[in-house]
Amino acid sequence: MIETFAVVVGIAMVAAGIVVIRHHYWPPDPGEEPREDVAEYISMMVGVLYALVLGLSMVSVWETRSGAVGHVQAEASAAHQIRLLSAGLPALEGERTRDAVDAYVHHVLSAEWPAMAQGQPPGRRGWDLLNDLRAAGRVPADATPVQQATLQETLAQLSALDDARRGREADVADALSPVLWFGLVVGGVLTVVFMFMFGVRRSFTHVVMVMGLTALITFTVLLVYELNQTFTGMFAVDSSPFTRYFTGS
To answer: Can you tell which superkingdom this protein's organism belongs to (predicted)?
Structure first.
């Protein structure tokens, strides 16, 4: 948070310095109109188009993060349900299922989450543990109807767990398009540059205008950058759903 504030203030101060230098060495011509009609129209269009790019980028990263939160919650909930359902399986299969789901969750928390925080995919080991969990719940042919029904519900939860895990893996690689990043950076620079197209004679007013606009654009771009890092950074999706269900894992 402090680093973000420092970057915003630093870039705003640089913009303010450019305004001061401009007014010192290239003051507005007294005969010049305070606001050029053409420059005003172009600046307005650039601002509108930049707002569209900014809004599209913000929606994109927010939806990606919201999807990641949903996948993590669904995965943790399915794993928790499988552990609860293991009590309705035959004794041996139930114990194997509990051990397998505990091993899977422990691997997710201890190995996969640190890797995802570095932008790396979870890896194959998690799928191997999920296959072990799928094999552990098989019940014998002479199982009671209740145990058979429990097995069917367990298989349904395993399917949900599988889908949620695939979604979580996709979320690690999902990022904002480079085209949108280009539009964010270039559009922000153009929007600030067009602030110098107006003949504002009062240097203090011009400084405040440019500083405010530059700080706002910088803050918004940094916000998009932080939200774009799904499993790391200031707004990282954490593993709290797993730790809430599996305190001892």
So the answer is: Bacteria
